[in-house]
């Protein structure tokens, strides 16, 4: 990460590092947000003596490139995989997910349709992946249209129906979700624990808790016991509705029924206590997790941080952050929350300390993390450091949001630094128009 852009391969050559599938896969996993830097490492590793990229390595770099919309390079790699007979269903499922996330619906469908040309026969798993990609990107109507057209070719299973039910739930369109649920039963496809969980989640989000309880009773009649996920949904919903007694009762009922609380249920309970301003109780839950040997995760940390920051308790938030990073691994949101907190309070030095700590932990910043710090620097009229971060962001192949680039542009014009603005604009134009190949 500290190398000049064109010096990565040279530095790696001098490092004495020897490529192995395990090392390459781990580096690519860590650099999943680093865009072109990860791709440069991938290219270097592929040229090493007695080394061949694994399918997992190809998949990791394809995901990374698709995330920054370097689709041309992505297809070049897919063609390379074809020549090496490494393509499989998962390759195309990854591409469909990434296209859908970028709201490229036609390209998503094209990827499914082109599989046979690459000698990979689409099956029900691929069909489900196509529907899932479209549903998760809020294109449920297109997913439903494809399902109606192709359901005779790919006989739907429980997962197919669950994907569509969840898609209509996200819309949100509760009547349509109910309709697909009834169609599933009419087609003699018995709902499984996943389907039941999705229906409970949809109904709770729609404020129909009583109907969700009926689904749980239906489950139990079919010898399907509620899982910790279903209990976590109920606890979370009661928390949102400020029904803290019901949330606690549900948690106790879960334990009484012999279902062990996992981190998701504890997180829901912590969130419920925060919602009703009972921070002391939330801390007690955290201590109980320790006693029960349930390890908190980044979500646990983020719930507490968001609550404290919302109440302007920034000192307490920083204490929680320092405590939590010793017992769980922060995620991109954790670092972004802290950087944003310090930036908005005008403490740029502390924002940069968190940034440096994040990099020391070998965590590659995401688009949002970059944007938050650049916005904070612009707010504090620190154009020089904002420009350095913007350049790093672009060189990593990450296209900055229009609002963030616009703020920096305005600051540079105010400070009469049009030459720097022109330099950054040229770099951005190159990133937009051409894949970042050396």
From TrEMBL:
<dbReference type="InterPro" id="IPR002885">
    <property type="entry name" value="PPR_rpt"/>
</dbReference>
<keyword id="KW-0677">Repeat</keyword>
<feature type="repeat" description="PPR">
    <location>
        <begin position="157"/>
        <end position="191"/>
    </location>
</feature>
<feature type="repeat" description="PPR">
    <location>
        <begin position="366"/>
        <end position="400"/>
    </location>
</feature>
<feature type="repeat" description="PPR">
    <location>
        <begin position="88"/>
        <end position="122"/>
    </location>
</feature>
<feature type="repeat" description="PPR">
    <location>
        <begin position="262"/>
        <end position="296"/>
    </location>
</feature>
<feature type="repeat" description="PPR">
    <location>
        <begin position="192"/>
        <end position="226"/>
    </location>
</feature>
<feature type="repeat" description="PPR">
    <location>
        <begin position="227"/>
        <end position="261"/>
    </location>
</feature>
<dbReference type="InterPro" id="IPR011990">
    <property type="entry name" value="TPR-like_helical_dom_sf"/>
</dbReference>
<feature type="repeat" description="PPR">
    <location>
        <begin position="123"/>
        <end position="153"/>
    </location>
</feature>
<dbReference type="Pfam" id="PF01535">
    <property type="entry name" value="PPR"/>
</dbReference>
<protein>
    <recommendedName>
        <fullName>Pentacotripeptide-repeat region of PRORP domain-containing protein</fullName>
    </recommendedName>
</protein>
<dbReference type="Pfam" id="PF12854">
    <property type="entry name" value="PPR_1"/>
</dbReference>
<feature type="repeat" description="PPR">
    <location>
        <begin position="331"/>
        <end position="365"/>
    </location>
</feature>
<dbReference type="Pfam" id="PF13041">
    <property type="entry name" value="PPR_2"/>
</dbReference>
<feature type="repeat" description="PPR">
    <location>
        <begin position="297"/>
        <end position="327"/>
    </location>
</feature>
<comment type="similarity">
    <text>Belongs to the PPR family. P subfamily.</text>
</comment>
């Amino acid at each position: 990460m500290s190398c000049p852009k064109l010096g990565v391969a040279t530095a790696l050559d001098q490092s004495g590092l020897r490529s192995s599938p395990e090392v390459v896969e781990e580096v690519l996993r860590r650099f999943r947000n680093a865009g072109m830097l990860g791709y440069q490492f991938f290219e270097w590793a592929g040229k090493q003596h007695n080394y061949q990229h694994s399918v997992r390595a190809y998949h990791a770099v394809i995901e990374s490139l698709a995330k920054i919309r370097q689709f041309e390079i992505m297809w070049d790699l897919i063609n390379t995989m074809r020549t090496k007979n490494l393509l499989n269903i998962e390759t195309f499922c990854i591409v469909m997910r990434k296209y859908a996330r970028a709201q490229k619906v036609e390209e998503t469908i094209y990827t499914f349709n082109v599989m046979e040309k690459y000698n990979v026969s689409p099956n029900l798993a691929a069909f489900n992946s196509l529907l899932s990609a479209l549903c998760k990107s809020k294109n449920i109507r297109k997913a439903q249209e494809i399902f109606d057209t192709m359901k005779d070719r790919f006989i739907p299973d429980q997962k197919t129906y669950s994907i569509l039910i969840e898609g209509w739930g996200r819309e949100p369109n509760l009547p349509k979700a109910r309709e697909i649920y009834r169609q599933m039963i009419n087609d003699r496809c018995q709902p499984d624990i996943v389907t039941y969980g999705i229906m409970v989640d949809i109904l709770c989000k729609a404020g129909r808790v009583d109907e969700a309880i009926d689904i749980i009773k239906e489950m139990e009649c079919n010898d399907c016991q509620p899982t910790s996920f279903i209990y976590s949904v109920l606890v979370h919903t009661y928390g949102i509705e400020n029904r803290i007694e019901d949330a606690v009762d549900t948690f106790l009922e879960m334990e009484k029924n012999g279902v062990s609380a996992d981190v998701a249920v504890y997180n829901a309970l912590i969130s419920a206590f925060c919602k009703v301003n009972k921070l002391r109780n939330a801390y007690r839950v955290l201590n109980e997790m320790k006693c029960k040997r349930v390890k908190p995760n980044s979500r646990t940390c983020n719930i507490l941080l968001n609550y404290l920051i919302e109440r302007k308790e920034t000192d307490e938030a920083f204490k929680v952050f320092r405590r939590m990073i010793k017992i769980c691994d922060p995620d991109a949101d954790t670092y972004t929350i802290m950087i944003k907190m310090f930036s908005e309070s005008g403490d740029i030095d502390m924002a940069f300390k968190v940034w440096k700590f994040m990099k020391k932990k070998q965590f590659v910043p995401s688009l949002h993390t970059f944007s938050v710090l650049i916005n904070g620097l612009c707010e504090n009229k620190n154009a020089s450091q904002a420009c350095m971060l913007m350049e790093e962001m672009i060189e990593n192949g990450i296209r900055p949001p229009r609002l963030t680039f616009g703020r920096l542009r305005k600051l540079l014009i105010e400070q009469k630094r049009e030459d720097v603005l022109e330099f950054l604009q040229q770099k951005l134009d190159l990133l937009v128009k051409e894949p970042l190949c050396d």
